[in-house]
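Q: Convert this sequence to structure tokens.
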Amino acid sequence: MAAANDLRKGMCIRYNGNPAIVLEVQHRTPGNLRAFVQAIIRYIGTGKSADVRFGSTDKVETVDVNRENLEFSYKDQTGFHFMNPENYETVSFDESFVGDAKEYLTENLTVEVLYVEGKPATLELPASVHLKVTESAEGVRGDSANNVMKPATLETGKVIQVPLFIKEGELVKIDTRNGQYMGRA
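A:
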């Protein structure tokens, strides 16, 4: 048990019986009222966020958390296979656990897996990835009055909007949080 004053961003706590990650913490002391800690948490099981308030002397149950860097190896019908670069152990996750991250996974991409109480909870991608454009229409000459975009298919199968000057075979930098084009790699 830890005091609510000791909460920090990135900690994992048990709130209402469910493990949750602390996203943001603010310690507040309004006027002549008692101090409190206001935190935004995200439940690991459901992914939903909540704004919670603790008294500054309240006790909060912390949860055992372990973060592990894994490299993506390959995908087959049994799932997505990752390797731990430190001890070369292979870990497999099913498609429901990987979720939308599958659109950015390329061979040897390092991801961070969060384990809560020994069970995998979330898979975190790097902020941006470099992917090759496999299919893209040619830009029409003279069609560049404004920021004109065209669809492009990436090596993972994801389709994004890119500027007209991007050609097939080029590497582009993609933001993994919103899936948008950031520039050439």
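The radius of gyration is 21 Å.
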